[in-house]
Amino acid sequence: MRYDLQIIASWVEPGSKVLDLGCGSGELLQYLEETKNITGTGIEGSEELATRAIDKGLQVLQGDINEEVLDYQDDYFDYVVLSQTLQQVFEPHVLIRELLRIGRFVIVSFPNFSHWSIRLQLLFNGYAPKNSQLPYEWYDTPNIRVITIEDFRKFARRSPGCRIIKEAAINTESHGRKGKIITFLPNLRATYGIFLISRK
């Protein structure tokens, strides 16, 4: 399992009701069901990935996460997970407001566009940066938001009714399977940011 998903899984309490948005083939949900006895639901835009998750016995809907979350009642879930998807959302502030409505806790992770390697590529090469976390050309990337760890902290502080409970800055390697927590200069040195937020 990806290292960022390992961190996210460690923050979820056993027996919780969890919604995983952009759940892919259901790796996190399957792990949480097997190890923490959670009740899980996933929403995935890709029909192929949703089918793979359903084949594992997981409860997964195929659809647009922005639309599907509107169907849930307030506080329906204990945790809502939005892993490495926020940078692809057209109106992230609207989606996060909805997630804080339907979940007691929301876990958000995203690539940190402020990592030193990205800064240097842009400074010295003058091209849109690419690396193992951001492997796309500028014209075919699904990432429409450029988010940094500091950006998200600022966003949370300024968003009415939102508070940061916990955060982790991480670097990953071995195709994201291994990694480490970054505590010194995280906005410069971390490749991903992970935040646990809730309503105030």
Polypeptide structure, described:
With about 200 residues, the protein is of the alpha/beta class. Helices cover about 35% and strands about 25% of the residues. It has 8 helices and 8 strands; from the N terminus they run αβαβαβαβαβααββαβ. It has helices spanning about 5-10, 25-35, 45-55, 65-70, 90-100, 115-125, 150-160, 185-190; strands at about 15-20, 40-45, 60, 75-85, 105-110, 160-175, 180, 190-200. The protein has an 8-stranded mixed sheet with strand order 3-2-1-4-5-8-6-7, sandwiched between helices. Strand 6 and strand 7 (about 180) form a beta hairpin. The longest helix is centred in the middle third of the chain and has 11 residues, at about 90-100. It starts with a helix and ends with a strand.
Secondary structure layout plus pairing:
Layout: H1 3-11, E1 17-21, H2 27-36, E2 39-44, H3 47-55, E3 60-62, H4 65-68, E4 77-83, H5 92-102, E5 103-111, H6 116-125, H7 149-158, E6 162-173, E7 178-181, H8 186-189, E8 192-199
Parallel strand pairs: 1-2, 1-4, 2-3, 4-5
Antiparallel strand pairs: 5-8, 6-7, 6-8
What is the string of helix and strand elements?
HEHEHEHEHEHHEEHE
The chain-level mean pLDDT equals 93
Number of helices: 8
Portion in beta strands = 25-35%
Sheet of most strands:
8 strands, mixed
Name the overall outline. Answer: globular
Radius of gyration: 16 Å
Strand order of the largest sheet: 3-2-1-4-5-8-6-7
- End-to-end separation in angstroms reads 32 Å
Number-wise, the strands total 8
Q: Roughly how much helix do the residues carry, as a percent range? A: 25-40%
Give the uncertain stretches in residue-range form.
none
Based on secondary structure, the structural category is alpha/beta
